[in-house]
Each structure stands twice: as C-alpha cells, then as structure tokens.
Design brief:
about 190 residues, alpha+beta
C-alpha cells in the first residue's frame, strides 16, 4: 500500500504516519527477502496461468487443481488454487447446467445395452425430449430417429411432455433418461 502511495507522489514518512506504521518497520519489510510460502504461491500462480491458458481459458479452480495434482503431481489444495486464481483474476467458464433428478421416480434399464447400430430400417428408434423455456411457458421438443437410416421418423413440439411416434418399430425404442420408454420384444 505504501509503495503505491509513494509511486503516486507521497513521501514515505507521510504514508507511514497516516497508516500508523513506523518508517524503520516499513523499510525492514521492504528489504526482507521473500518467504518460502510467498515464493511457492508465486510459482503456483505461474503454473495456474499456464494450465488455464492451455485450456483456452475454460478451466476453473477444480479442473486446474486436478491438472496440477493428477497431471503434474504437485501437491496443492483446491482451496489454495481457488484463492490464487481469484487473486490473479483468473476465472474459468461456467459449466453445464446440472440435471435435476426427481427422487422416487424410477428410470428404465438400458434395453439395447448401448448397441445402437442396426442393419435394417425400423429395427430401433431412439428419442429425446428437451425442455425449452419461452416467455409464455415451457415447450417440449421430442424427436424420434431411426438408428439405421438416421432419419427423423417423428417429432413434436408441445406444451405437454408426450412422445412423438408415427408407428412402432419392429424391435424396440430407446429414449433418453426422463423420457417415455417402450420396447417391443424381439
């Protein structure tokens, strides 16, 4: 603080008197060598900047911490990384919105066991329902796609969450979590 005021044109004696600091104490502080803790913090700040730049400015304190500890083997706490990033003015981008799951509502099993490739049309359809907020109300968009042709076989935009189906496939239908699910046995 005194250094900034001296650079602005005030004398050291005036600054020490106003801030209630002794002049010899200020000069002792100024001439004191940097402590090992401060040296480590400056070194860590440089590493944090390096990791942040390598991530194209996207990583926040948790990811920077993971890169330092797991990627580079440096022992440091996530809180210290956050403090150093804050002091240096480094910030990551906000992450994706978290999906809110409703407790007590069971989800279906993965009936196709992540095997989406099919060799014939209408063997397997996949669907997803997304919620979009508008000024008036929520709107749900549902698309149903055939996995063989990757053709959209049905879609719907409505204010009520319902699936859009033209007809049923021969073998089954797979929907994302939270969407209606049905499956025809083989």
């Amino acid at each position: 603080m005194i250094d900034i005021l001296v650079d602005a044109g005030f004398s050291v004696q005036q600054c020490c008197r106003v801030l209630n600091v002794s002049s010899p104490g200020y000069y002792a502080y100024r001439n004191r060598p940097m402590s090992p803790t401060m040296m480590r913090r400056e070194w860590l700040t440089a590493l944090i900047r390096e990791v942040h730049v390598a991530s194209r400015g996207t990583y926040g304190s948790r990811r920077v911490h993971a890169e330092l500890t797991k990627g580079r083997g440096i022992e440091v706490s996530v809180n210290l990384v956050g403090i150093l990033m804050h002091n240096a003015g480094i910030a990551g981008l906000p992450g994706p919105a978290k999906v809110k799951r409703i407790k007590g509502i069971p989800t279906s099993d993965d009936l196709v066991e992540r095997q989406f490739a099919r060799s014939a049309l209408d063997e397997l359809w996949v669907s997803d329902i997304t919620e979009h907020r508008t000024r008036e109300r929520k709107v749900f968009c549902c698309c149903v796609m055939d996995t063989c042709s990757r053709r959209i076989v049905g879609w719907s935009i409505d204010s009520v969450q319902a699936s859009a189906r033209r007809e049923r496939p021969r073998q089954g239908h797979h929907a994302a979590q939270g969407s209606p699910r049905w499956h025809r046995p083989r």
